[in-house]
Amino acid sequence: MPPAPGAMPPVAYGAPTPGTPGTVIAGFICAIVGCFIAGPLLWIPGLILCIMGRNQARRQGTPTALATAGFWVSIAGLIISALIIILYIIMFAAIGASGGFDPTTSLVVPSFFV
């Protein structure tokens, strides 16, 4: 059936272009939220999801910038967490080697409280 006079002709739409894979978005969200809540518990899944999503985005030919950003945020968070854990281990080892913590000798009390 031909279009009515004065009507727009039908438009042929091409195939929809693929968007950013959901794994990329989920990985990026895990990486960013991990900065504020639950650190390594979200950085590890964020890292895994970003790697999976980056591979999927490359196969689809979509941009991988979001996956790359989530990957590096997760890596940076995990490195910082590892350094903090190492610092705590060194600190507790030093306290143990010095004979332990004695709050009666280590506590500094202002003179007006005495």
Strand % is: under 5%
Question: What order do the helices and strands follow?
Answer: HHHH
Residue-averaged pLDDT:
83
Uncertain runs: none
Question: Which percent bin holds the helix content?
Answer: 55-70%
Number of helices: 4
Q: Give the strand tally.
A: 0
State the secondary-structure class.
mainly alpha
Global Rg? 28 Å
- What sort of overall outline do the alpha carbons produce when their principal axes are compared? rod-shaped
Distance between the termini: 99 Å
Main sheet attributes: strand count, strand direction, barrel closure:
none
Structural description of this entry:
With 114 residues, this protein is an all-alpha fold. The chain has a domain at 22-99. The chain is built from four helices and no strands. The longest helix has 33 residues, at 65-97.
What's the structural blueprint in terms of helices and strands?
Elements: H1 22-34, H2 39-60, H3 65-97, H4 103-106
Helix pairs in contact: 1-2, 1-3, 2-3
Which keywords apply here?
single chain, 114 residues, mainly alpha, 0% strand
Quick recap:
The chain has 114 residues and is mainly α.
